[in-house]
Amino acid sequence: MSVAPGWYVDPADPETRRYWDGEGWIGAPIPVDATPPDGPPPPEPEPAPEPTSPAATSTPATPDVPAAGTPSATVPQGSPSGWPGGGAAPHGPPPGWPGGPASSQGGPAWPTGDTPQGPPPGWPYPTWPGRPPAPRPHGMPLASFGARLGARLIDFGIVFLLNALVNGWFVWRYLQELSAPLDEFWRRVQSQDRTTDPLPAAGDQAGALVVTILLIATALWLAYEVPSMAASGQTFGKRLLRVRAVPVEADAPLGFGRALRRWNTLGLPTLLWYCCGLGLLLQLIDALSPLFDHPLRQALHDKRAQTVVVQLPRTPDDRANPPGETS
């Protein structure tokens, strides 16, 4: 691939144009909407040499042992900033560009001399070679789906016990309202009665009792989860399995508003359980959504509240030195 000399949009700064001489970028950039001159830009004047003191000229240079407070090497003009070690830019394209050491595209050799700022016109930007590493929000690994599911099942068990204490009487009254159709249904099963007559209607208070039971169950779940998540990002189940919900932008408490938004997506569908199981279906989709989200493994309620669930380190050293890194 050979790129003809000319003025092109600078890949490193799309707001400017620079002149490509066939081997590298030369001259100063101009605005992208300006009319470029014909031919290459005029050569830039060489900077005047800095005056040196008599002591500096009489002392032999020691390039291998730099003086204190001075950099060990200088990045030459024309090389991108941030090369490893701050030294001279290596010749040849970076890994991932055509013709580079990590490229499988073949392509022409990179021009000799100082590496230009950005790829030549029409060349792709470098990409991460292989699979990128797993994100570590705020220095902590993401919690696995198994740990999140285990914590949620523990919390559901606690909320179920609370409902047994608070909602038990209403559930007993609801079963009494359903006793007539249930008894008739069981009698037909035992006697193998194939009649098509409708079952007796439930009691008059059955509908009101269903609404009351679901309202109490939703309120108990909200009271159990939202305050603890707002304060620490953890419920009892999350504490046992050492997982925590944190905001995407900072390692900080969620606050009541964010914790409430996070719970609403998963908790409010409880009120729709009586609609042919619609609420249970919505909650199942939300619970399984982290399996299909990449790279942060966010559930639908995490996306609404802009949170991520991380695995807490066992010791402070585990967070400072994650696996595969050394201090």
Automatic annotation (TrEMBL):
<feature type="compositionally biased region" description="Pro residues">
    <location>
        <begin position="117"/>
        <end position="136"/>
    </location>
</feature>
<feature type="compositionally biased region" description="Low complexity">
    <location>
        <begin position="53"/>
        <end position="68"/>
    </location>
</feature>
<dbReference type="InterPro" id="IPR051791">
    <property type="entry name" value="Pra-immunoreactive"/>
</dbReference>
<feature type="compositionally biased region" description="Pro residues">
    <location>
        <begin position="37"/>
        <end position="52"/>
    </location>
</feature>
<feature type="domain" description="RDD">
    <location>
        <begin position="142"/>
        <end position="305"/>
    </location>
</feature>
<feature type="domain" description="DUF2510">
    <location>
        <begin position="5"/>
        <end position="37"/>
    </location>
</feature>
<feature type="transmembrane region" description="Helical">
    <location>
        <begin position="266"/>
        <end position="285"/>
    </location>
</feature>
<keyword id="KW-0812">Transmembrane</keyword>
<feature type="compositionally biased region" description="Low complexity">
    <location>
        <begin position="100"/>
        <end position="116"/>
    </location>
</feature>
<dbReference type="InterPro" id="IPR010432">
    <property type="entry name" value="RDD"/>
</dbReference>
<protein>
    <submittedName>
        <fullName>RDD family protein</fullName>
    </submittedName>
</protein>
<dbReference type="Pfam" id="PF10708">
    <property type="entry name" value="DUF2510"/>
</dbReference>
<dbReference type="GO" id="GO:0005886">
    <property type="term" value="C:plasma membrane"/>
</dbReference>
<feature type="region of interest" description="Disordered">
    <location>
        <begin position="1"/>
        <end position="136"/>
    </location>
</feature>
<feature type="transmembrane region" description="Helical">
    <location>
        <begin position="206"/>
        <end position="224"/>
    </location>
</feature>
<keyword id="KW-1003">Cell membrane</keyword>
<keyword id="KW-1133">Transmembrane helix</keyword>
<keyword id="KW-0472">Membrane</keyword>
<dbReference type="InterPro" id="IPR018929">
    <property type="entry name" value="DUF2510"/>
</dbReference>
<feature type="transmembrane region" description="Helical">
    <location>
        <begin position="153"/>
        <end position="172"/>
    </location>
</feature>
<dbReference type="Pfam" id="PF06271">
    <property type="entry name" value="RDD"/>
</dbReference>
